[in-house]
Amino acid sequence: MEKTTLLDSITLNTSKRIWCIDMNSYFASVEQQDNPRLRGKPVIVSGEGKRTIVVAASREAKKFGISTGMKIHEAVKLCPYVIQVYGNGDKYASIQDHVLSILDEYFSCIEVASIDEVYVDSLGLGDWDRLEVVAKEIKKRFKEEIGAYITCSIGISINKLMAKLASNMRKPDGLTILPYEVLPTVLPSVPVEDICGIGHRLTQRLHALGIYHLGDFETFPVEILLKQFKEYETLFFLNTARGIGSTTVAVSRDLPKSFSHAITLPKDTSSIQYLQKVLYTLLEKAVFRMSKKEMKAKYIGVFLRLPELSYVFDHKNIGYYTDNAYELYLQARIVLEGLFEPLQPVRQIGVVLRDTVASADLPIPLFDDSKERKLQEVMERINIKHGNFTIAPMTIYHTKSLQRKIHGFYKQL
Amino acid sequence: MEINEPIDLYAVFKKGKIIPLAFKWHGQKHVVDDITIAYTQRDGVYMIYHFSLLAKDTYYSISIHGKDNAARLNHIEYQ
């Protein structure tokens, strides 16, 4: 009963006007915009190499059941004439910059949730009718200035969760507005799997209890939910059914919360020496991006994916903030050694730097004039001027094949 | 088909943007009918400006490297 009281104490903030702008099949749409020969055809975007997966599928490919994360041979089995395009991260990031530059003209509060999803708070822009006009204008500008094949679905509502739900209601190229007044009639019939945050496993567990739609939560005993699910999950379900969600749009573009990199290895390996080299390569990339933002981190995490597709993960708080790749590598190596089991093949390795802070916010160290620090700074300057990995320690020798190429072109399977 | 050869590029600079109009490759001039996409890529301190173009139904991928302003034809594909 105490939990119900807690829920009742949460009030629904109806004053906000939050947008979710979701680029439709983003990577695949960019490639189809780029090359007209790909338009109207099933296209998958992937990395290079034999063990790559589907990173994005065009709307035509999705009709065959192809989805993100699928192995290439599985996609080919579903659609033998699917066209595989090698992804080009620089291209997608550059187009995203163009999208953001247009949004900057309309909004002061923009949260970049991912490369293909943005939340904005349209404070002071006007009533719901005015927002619809602005949304249509933005969609028109995207088509004229970026490309007609790159479309987005816009959802506008009172919080991020409802805006996300709205953006998912019409795809591709949709515009859905869910004012507070319509939520009580719309939400009860929304399938639970349509809610961002309710994944496949949670959906299965809810279905097993006879909960298929948000409206089913209204009559379902809270006590049973609390027995079956964790408290925060139960709160999330009940809040969502009432249309309650976060209204905080964090301007995250300048200060990312984490920097990570992962790679699927060309073949499974049980060599700790090879994994250490790859680890350093990944850390160099993550630190390079972090340094360009003039940030430092004190949390290092390492994960390994094993052939049966299970993950092992561990992390370490190193106790001080740093942007020194070698210092971070020495700590990450300890984490890796703790995770690694001899003779256990590894399929994928990844690294994440968290607990980040702007370097300017940290006190200046008085006695940090070590040779390693000076060497690191010089190496960073060289790499910033001449490109990543222009200069690198011998530690990562033999991992050059894992580094990204400048261009990405496609191949017909 | 990957080409990777230098070209002469004719372009206008408008509102801070480069707009390719035509290019000369192997002595032949190709007039740009449509720019399908334009994006930038960083190479150290320099920018590379990429353009995908259509000229008489042929797809061309060209780039300009900010280091020496040299234009190159990277890729060509007959539609």
List the helices and strands and how they pair.
The complex is a heterodimer of chains A (413) and B (79).
Chain A: H1 2-8, E1 18-23, H2 26-34, E2 43-46, E3 54-57, H3 59-62, H4 72-78, E4 83-86, H5 89-104, E5 110-114, E6 117-121, H6 128-145, E7 152-157, H7 160-169, E8 175-177, H8 183-186, H9 200-208, H10 216-219, H11 222-228, H12 231-241, E9 259-269, H13 272-292, E10 295-305, E11 311-322, H14 325-339, E12 346-358, H15 371-386, E13 410-412
Helix pairs in contact in A: 13-14
Chain B: E1 2-14, E2 17-25, E3 28-31, E4 34-43, E5 46-55, E6 58-65, E7 70-78
Antiparallel strand pairs in B: 1-2, 1-7, 2-3, 4-5, 5-6, 6-7
Classify the secondary structure makeup of chain A into a structural class: alpha+beta
Report the uncertain regions of chain A: 1-9, 402-413
**C-alpha termini separation of chain A:** 59 Å
Main β sheet profile of chain A? 5 strands, mixed
Order of helices and strands of chain B: EEEEEEE
What portion of the residues of chain A fall into strands of 2 or more residues? 15-25%
Q: Portion of residues in helices of chain A?
A: 25-40%
Going across the biggest sheet of chain A, name each strand in turn: 5-6-1-7-8
* Proportion of helical residues of chain B: under 10%
Contiguous uncertain segments of 5+ residues of chain B? none
Q: What's the story with the biggest beta sheet of chain B?
A: 7 strands, antiparallel
How much of the sequence of chain B is in beta strands? Answer: over 45%
Which chains share the greatest interface? A-B, 21 and 19 residues
DSSP E strands of chain A, number: 13
The coarse overall form of chain A would be: globular
Question: How would you describe the oligomerization state of the chains in this entry?
Answer: heterodimer
